[in-house]
Amino acid sequence: MPDLSRFGAFPLGDGRCEFRVWAPNARSVAVRLGQAAVPGTCLAPSEGGVHEGAVQAGPGQDYVYVLDGDAALPDPCSRYQPQGIRGPSRIVDSSVYEIEAGPVLDPQHLVVYELHVGTFSDAGTFDGAIAHLPALRDLGVTAIEVMPVATFPGNRGWGYDGLYLSAVHPAYGGPDGLARLVDAAHRAGLAVILDVVYNHLGPGSEAITAYGPYVTDRQRTPWGGALDFSQPAVREWAIQNAELWAHDFRIDGLRLDAVYAILDDESPTHVLAELRERLPDTLLIAEEEVGTYRPIEEWAFDAQWADDFHHELHVALTGESHGYYGQYGSLANMPRLYERRPPEKFVYCSQNHDQVGNRPTGDRPADDELELRAAALLFAPQTPLLFMGEEYGERQPFQFFTDHVDAQIAEATREGRRREFGFAGDDVPDPQAEQTFLASKLSRKELPGLRELYTDLLRLRRELPRETTALGDDSTRIVKVRRGEVELVADFRTRTVTINR
Hints:
There is one protein chain. The protein is an alpha/beta fold. The protein has helices at residues 117-120, 126-130, 133-139, 174-187, 206-209, 232-248, 271-278, 294-297, 307-318, 334-338, 353-357, 370-378, 407-420, 434-438, 450-463, and strands spanning 8-11, 16-22, 29-33, 41-42, 44-45, 50-56, 62-67, 71-73, 89-90, 112-115, 143-146, 150-151, 164-168, 191-196, 215-221, 224-227, 253-256, 283-286, 303-305, 346-349, 383-387, 469-473, 478-483, 486-491, 496-500. The chain has two domains: 8-96, Immunoglobulin-like; 107-404 and 431-467, TIM Barrel (Alpha-Beta Barrel). It has an eight-stranded parallel β-barrel. Strands 3, 4, 7, 8 and 9 form a five-stranded antiparallel beta sheet that branches. The longest helix has 17 residues, at 232-248. It is elongated, with a radius of gyration of 23 Å. The N and C termini lie far apart (64 Å).
């Protein structure tokens, strides 16, 4: 069996660096350091398409792999791409980071706060986010969930089109910046959950598939070719990435994007079940389709997103019934969601990056909905997820923005966004325009009293018993939820809430 124990560039501490890469498509692989025009140092071919060797090099040096004496490409397991997806890789020794241990996570009292690094602060960096952490702790948040930070095309984007999974996005501050954010969060008493994408590769993946069959044509995802986890080395590539975040960056949890789009490779052990086995102490949350429970029932994940709560709440308040919203909106369905067991296995929200950002203009819920949304969400015993800014009534939109470096991909993204919304397409912001990104930055202008409401509700939920009973009546438009001696009465007709204690 080939040795797939670790891939990447690893400083050895004696002035040398070990390089290991899976490249079954190449007869030869050489390491070229810096700006040198020489072919570089050839790595020794090993079993299963692995090439490996130790070279005089150390942290901070740039390198590329030269395949068959021709194509000079970044390392698929790069730890840093300071010049973006088309630049060289940089050697990083992430094992030296001194990061404070995270808090002990209690799944029954987990409160997650989703944020996008680029729009969460004026600076749009990890360091820019640090100043706002104490306010989240004081609010009652126990963990921040950071949208993907793997290097993606350009500087601006949501992060779900990542290419170099282990290379922290340079515009955010690179790996050193991420280490500082995690350390600061832990010191503030907050855990860190990182959003990761193991279902596809973004535009520019030909630089990775030149090495080997990372992507399969047996399945297509809505965003590109599916990763081929029938290849043991591709499984390792993804799982080792998860181990990097958990071990070197001391990240407390991972939220896995769109696991329904991960190809089931018919291996005896599903790749995500193996990931669970390899990271027994890491909180794992999956984004799964409504009504499917494989993550928590088969793979032993800690929780999964349950978007049906958002959909019922949103349609009941707005009356929107297009697309998948058509099957939602009956208040008689709400009690089932409140009484769902075990509650800590399901993550509920009123807003998140998808439900706001995938609207044509990324608009947030109306002002007169916010108190009812907050109470309906935070009174539920299930795990609540807040989206950045909702706790004080942020009115800036969160729009869909990209910064593709390939002109054809950029235009296809613009056109696809317009087509998606049909007659409204002309009003959809240009995803490639910098202004679309800037318009999505938090203003931090607060609606009076809303933060205090969130703080009170989060304090109350810590005191309430988990046992829950609920009633929903479509004729009166009222939902009642009882936890112990405390009852929430949510009137969807008047958009008011009462908490009887």
